[in-house]
Write a structure and sequence with these properties.
Residues 38-240 form the DUF58 domain. This is DUF58 domain-containing protein. Pfam families: DUF58. The chain is α/β, with parallel strands linked by helices. It folds into two domains: 3-21 and 73-276, Rossmann fold (3-Layer(aba) Sandwich), CATH 3.40.50; 25-69, no CATH class. It contains nine helices and eleven strands. The chain has helices at residues 3-18, 52-58, 92-109, 133-144, 155-165, 187-192, 203-206, 231-255, 268-276, and strands at residues 25-30, 34-40, 62-69, 74-79, 114-119, 123-130, 171-176, 194-201, 212-217, 224-229, 258-263. It has a six-stranded mixed beta sheet with strand order 6-5-4-7-8-11, with helices on both faces. Strand 9 and strand 10 form a beta hairpin. The longest helix is centred in the last third of the chain and has 25 residues, at 231-255.
């Protein structure tokens, strides 16, 4: 593991565990560790839960009841395409690594198993279901070192594969920049699972400056672009971004998806905790 990634994990862990994040306590009564109440013994109650001291005082058997522990299934899906190989303060790929690591640490802190995937043209398993910190570190390493150049996103394939491969009701976190979302349809996935979207962007992508004559390499297609970035070009580009985001936000709202936008210059952990509360 390189030094840059180690710094990301140490910083993410420090920021995360300094925030107040509670466990998944439940109001349901059942097996657990948090005491709820005492009640008179009824046929079928577990005799192991009898409070012998209270029973002796009351001359009747009483049993302890506890809050049941509610375990969540967490799935972390990182959209790693060529467009994430960009950033003025940090690369978007680095922010995605931070967010995925934060979600892994939160899952472990709450005693919930998590699994992770890397998505672009296809869906591939990054880490299998686990509650171990080793898997958070391994996931972070895979995402941080993943070669995104030349990779595009196929939303139709990804959502279809997620629906087929995730059998139990889960909370699915989708992390990516969500550009070119014409084929994005999460309605079926949201009927089966809870979906939360984390949109990672760089400020320059939404508010570019006039650059004059430029030569770019498109990180998604590896093609060269040689031209002029003028006021007119920027105006048209910004309009397309706004239209993309309008469709995206409307779709999220129609599906009941919670979402937030995180820029590369922002504290990703604080923005994440804000949407989880």
């Amino acid at each position: 593991m390189n030094q840059a990634l180690k710094k990301i994990l140490i910083k993410t862990k420090k920021n995360l565990f300094s925030e107040i994040i509670g466990n998944n306590s439940s109001l349901k009564k059942g097996e657990g560790y948090d005491f709820c109440e005492l009640k008179e013994y009824e046929y079928g109650d577990d005799v192991k839960n009898i409070d012998w001291l209270i029973s002796a005082k009351m001359q009747k058997p009483y049993v302890k009841q506890y809050h049941t522990q509610k375990e969540l299934n967490i799935k972390i899906v990182s959209f790693l395409t060529g467009s994430t190989y960009f950033g003025t303060k940090k690369f978007k790929q680095e922010i995605i690594t931070e967010l995925a690591s934060s979600l892994g640490y939160i899952s472990i802190k709450q005693g919930d198993p998590f699994a992770s995937f890397i998505a672009n043209e296809t869906l591939e398993i990054c880490t299998k279901k686990s509650k171990k910190i080793f898997n958070v570190n391994f996931m972070a390493e895979q995402i941080y070192n993943y070669n995104v150049l030349g990779k595009n996103i196929n939303y139709k394939t990804i959502t279809k594969e997620l629906f087929k491969s995730i059998h139990h009701k889960s909370i699915i976190f989708l992390i990516g920049d969500f550009f070119d979302i014409d084929t994005l349809d999460l309605k079926l996935l949201c009927q089966k699972h809870e979906v939360i979207a984390l949109i990672v962007r760089d400020n320059f992508e939404e508010n570019p400056a006039e650059l004059g004559n430029v030569n770019f390499v498109d990180p998604m297609t590896n093609k060269n672009f040689d031209g002029v970035i003028s006021k007119g070009t920027i105006k048209n580009y910004i309009q397309k971004i706004k239209e993309n985001d309008r469709k995206l936000f409307n779709h999220f709202q129609d599906c009941g998806i919670k979402f937030t936008k995180i820029y590369t210059h922002e504290d990703s952990t604080k923005k994440l905790i804000g949407v989880l509360r």
